[in-house]
Structure formats: C-alpha cells, structure tokens
## 1
Amino acid sequence: MTHNLLRENGSKTGSAKTILEFDVTVNRPEFSLHAAGSFGSGITAVFGPSGAGKSTLLGAIAGSVKPSKGHISLFGRTLVSTSEGVTLPPERRRVGFVYQDATLFPHMTVEKNIAYGHRLTPKDQRRLDPSDLAELLAISGLLQRRPSELSGGEKQRVALARTLATSPELLLLDEPMSALDIRLRGIVLGYLKLIHRELAMPMVYVSHSISEVLAIADEAMVLEQGRVKTFGTARRLLNQVSTAEGDAGDLTVDNILEGQIVESHTSGEPGKVRIGRAELTAPTGHREFGEKVVVAIGSQEIIVATERPVGISARNVLAGTVASLDGDGPRRMVAVDCGAELMAEVTASAINELDIQPGKDVYLVIKSSSITVMDAFRD
C-alpha cells in the first residue's frame, strides 16, 4: 500500500528530529497570542482552556491567521517570516487541517469528497492514493454514500482521508473529537495512532481534554491566555489539573488504552480484556476472543489500597507499583504500573495517610461496571 512506499522514501515514525519551528505573535483588539516552540515528528498536543489561543496558533501554522510578527518553518522551509516579507499561501504550505466538525461536501459522495483534494495537489507532490487511504481507514464500503448517510465517527474518518489525500507534510487537528461520544472517540483515536504509525505523519493535536492528550500525544504544549505555560511530556499536563483556569480546571482523567478480548461469554456475563500484561474482568458484550478493543476507565473510579482487600464485590484487584505522583492540589494523580500503566485520582490527604510514593507496592480496585469497552479501529 501507499503507506509502505512512504517509509521507503525515507520517513521514519518516532524520529526525534525537529520538523516544525515557530515564534509568532498575533495581535487582535480583544486577544493577543505569543507562542514559540519546536515540535518533532511525533504527535504533539496543544492543550489549554477555551480562549487560550490553541486554534489561533493552528491557524497561523496553516495560513488562515496572519501573524503580526514572527516566523514559522516546516522541514526547513520558511512558511512565514515577517522580517523577510515571506507569507506562503495555505495551498503552498503542505499542511493538512482537520476541524472540529467534519465539514464534508454534502452534495458529493464519500469517494468524491476524498478525491477532491487529491486532484488539486500537484502530481509531483502526491504521495498518498485515495483508495489506499479508504482501505487504511476502513471506509472502502462507504465510498458511494453521501455525508448525510454517515455516522459521526464515519464522517470524521472521511474528513481525515480527504485531508490526507492532499499528501500533507504535517497534519493539524483542532478538537477533532468534540462532536463525538466516548465510544466514537476511542475509535477515532485509534485511527489517528494508526495514521501516525503507518504513514509516518507528524501531527499537532489541539484539545482541552487531558484524557485525549494522554491517550495520543508524545509531548504537549500548555497555553493559557495566549502564552506558553509549559512544554514537555504529555504526563506533565497532570500537574496542570489543579491549577489550570477555565474548562481545564473541571476536567477528569480517563485511562484510554488499547486492549484485546481474551475471554468472552454469549450469555452476557462479563468477559476478560488484556491491556498490556494485565487482565481485567469487564463487560465485553458479544465481542469475540482476540478482538481488538479500546478500554476506558475513569481515574476517579479506581481505588488505591496498600494491602490486598478481601471480601469485596469488585471483580478486579490488580497488584502494581507506584510509578509517579502528578499534580500539586487537593487531588492528585497516582500512576501505577500493574502490567499496564493506570492513573487513579487520590486526595492529597489520603496519599499522606497511606504514605503513597513512587516505588511503593499497591493494589488497584476496579469494579467491572466502571470499565467501558469500545470497538477499536481495524488494522
């Protein structure tokens, strides 16, 4: 398939090489953005509450927002340099943009939607074939349908395919999950990981959902009121939970993990799902043995114990070791390695009373009814 050709042409997934550099200022009467950074070839999140400047930064990179001053370069190509008078138009930037809503052409079939951008791309820049993208995103069976006949998750995958058909060097995603429920979010997150892995496609992922960022991003930049607050590994976002303003202060964290069915029952009884080396008893529905799934567990739904509990109704008691403590407010995140890394929300007072610290052996208690098992993408 085309994604294999992409690797042969020299792109490597997971490279630490810097591909995007920027230092831009956008001045508006009611808002100003000043952001500088260097992003690598992985998946980088831009995180923050509403009004922080996330979409403005993406617009400056894509070309829909004109910086007041500054520069932007992609793979060493100058996209913007106000000092040199350079501002490339959007169509020459080789940047793909996926918006909050899958804004497909309603009068076109899925096939024509995907082919639209491909036809506008110069032949010498075409690296990805529409039919290969349809196969990769499991939408080959939808090609003759119109957008009105698609589910929300299908629309978003078609929007991804249409954007990728322009063969961008960088994919920008602006809150792509905001219109989807948690089941569909798990599916689309899986496809985004697949795109990055198979197409070696660097991404900038804008969100105000900590759970999404932790599930998909390698690194994260935190914006507040138009300024960069911090930049580093995605885990560092957890230190913002108790201090971030606006929407972010009320967010909870979901563990969103890829798994596989290892036991199922046609009677409707809970089955078992393996995540990493851990196995969870969970409502698997009528899914079959070996089927890939996405598992979501709220951090507030996990109890941390320093001794193995007995005589309880919860079906899951996992032994593990505390990997880290994150956050500095009244509620903190405890990351525990139990064969897979899970995060549990624990009050600061409980952490002190139980003497929870990195390296300590603990047990995680999880009710099976607290685990959501969702369909995964198809490889």
## 2
Amino acid sequence: MGSTAPLERFLAAAAKMFPESKSSGASGVPFVTISRQAGAGGHVLARALLDRTLEARPKALFEGWSLFDERLAEMVAENPALKVSLRGLAEEEFASDIQDMVSSWIGGLSPQSVVVAHLFKVIRGLAQQGKVIIVGRAGACLTRTLPLGVHLRLMAPLDVRVRRVRAVLGSSEKEARRVVADRDRARAALVKTYFHRDIDDPLLYDLVWNTDTVPVEVVASTTLRAVESLARRGRRV
C-alpha cells in the first residue's frame, strides 16, 4: 500500500484482511488515548490513571478499566497470520519503504502495512468496547470518530525528556538523545503516513500537557474528571 492512500481505503483493506465480529460496535463507554513525546511520561501517566480508576466514583463508570501499551504489541504478535518483531512493535519502530522491503525479503517479516492494519483493528476494537487506556500507536487519530474518547498529548522540554530516558535506560546522554529522536521520528511518521496529520497538532487532542510543569497526579485527576463529564453529556462527532 502506498503511503498516500486515504485512511478510508486503508481501513477498508484492513477490514477485509481481518473481518470484524458482527457484534462489534461503539459501546457508549468512554476511553482514553495518550499520545506523547519520548520521555514525556506516557507510561507513568497511564499507570497513574489506571490506579486512580480503582477508587474513582461513580464506581459503575470507573470499575474494570484496562491499560494497553506494550500489551498492544503482544496482541499483534500473537496473531499466527503475522510474523513480526515484538521488540520493534513494543518500541513503535516505523520503517521506511526500503527498510520494510528488506525486512520482508531477508528477515521474512510481514509487510509493515499488514502489521499496522492489524494493529489499528485491535486498537479500534478496544476503544469500541470502552474502559481502556491506549498509549501511543496513533490512537487519537484512529479513534477520533468514536464519540466517547478523551485524547491526551504529553510534551516536555527536550533536555527534561533526555534526562528521563537516560535514567530509565542507564545510558549516556548521547545515546538517550538518539533514542528520544528516533522514537519521536517513528511516532510522527506513523501519524503522517496513515492519517496525513502532524502529531504535534494540538487540534488532534482534547488536553495537551507539559509534564515538566504539571504533576502527573494533576493530569490524572483532571483526565478522570473529563471522562466523567463526557460520560454524562456525551460528545458530538
């Protein structure tokens, strides 16, 4: 598939490759997507959100939530029809056309477009069921037409993000900067290729946070209040 194909054609092709259950559809239950710059704290926030749902009220709205970050990679990798790199999926790598061809021919991996099609189908299915926190993977773009999503974007100054990544990896500053740049580039390429959008466009999101100045606890509590408000009044698409 060419990178300029409209999203509608792409999703139509994905539906043919991986038919949906007849019972699938929007559940009317909220969900959250988190887009983030590398090192901005997406996984930390996701975990904080999940922990807060355990005590949040009303209980009927906040009980039974699940988190999908690296688990998305595992769900795709479990598909017997695909041969994928679990590490590449977990780290959200995005290959150029040439790299993709080499991986398919030499490494025997499934074409990137097929893998992404299945990934998108998994994410849509989870969001339609509701009560999920989806980290990355162009979740905000992919689920934008579903009525009850709260879409977040996390950002922070580069030096702050490099310092955080360096602490997690135990690496040099030079290596941490490379990792941050590579991850940001891959995530932006996914959104640009399949949705023709700029990942930093604030209009893609409901809430944009600077995690260098706003504590994760504030982001989490505000997000849950947004979820509650959305559940009460609904949203026009």
